[in-house]
Amino acid sequence: MSKAIFTIVTPALNCGALLPRNLKSVHSQGLPPGEIEHWVIDGGSKDETLEILKQQPHVKYISEKDKGLSDAVNKGILRATGEWIIWLNADDELAPDALMAFKEAIKQYPDVLMFCGRQKVLKYDGSLESIEEGWAYNVKDLLGMRTSIIQASTFVHRSVYEKVGLLDVNCRYAMDYEWIVRAAHHYRTQPLPIILTHYHRRQGSIMDANMPAHYRTFLRARRRYRKSFLSPAEWRIRLYLMAQPLRRIIWLRRAVRRIKAAFGHEPVHPMS
What's this model's pTM, rounded to 2 decimal places? Predict the structure, then answer.
């Protein structure tokens, strides 16, 4: 079996309305067919997902029940033949010419196996919210005050997975963060000044659905690596979790939003 340069792994479940944008962004990268493969790992969708995939001869896919997002991504990684593995969720997309730009940029870093590029973040209405800068993941910051990673724009060499292992299927939220912490104990990450992906905010996504669960993953990572209970990072996470009941009070949330708006801070998440 010939090996590609890139394997795109896209987990999907009832994302038929979003998947065409994702597929188009991969297919339009301008690389020869032998250099890129795209695996869509469908969790048994009941919408039009399978019909869409059947019409895409350049896409490889499976459709079966899985144990969650981590399990789906792992299935794709295990099937990957590419040198570089990219986890691209069904509601996100590669930036135009991202892969060619990446191939050119990494020539400066022949010994680096993990890269983090920039990412364009789009609001719920599709307008530009911000551009996130890639950063050099490291254990101190990840287990400290900087738990935010840029998952889609993190391009990983297959040998890293061979050493670090796959995603933890028991981790239901922030599984990408948990894996990056493990990888950062062995490999350095090189930031790249190029936009590699577009992240689309979407109501009902894992990121939106249960943010406190992500923070509990951060705490479990701190316990695993025996970080202090008294550090500012610890209290930042715990204060977020302690304040969660207050976020369920609609009038209070609205009041906080008005105060933030008065100071020029636009709320990221829409009111439910």
Answer: 0.92
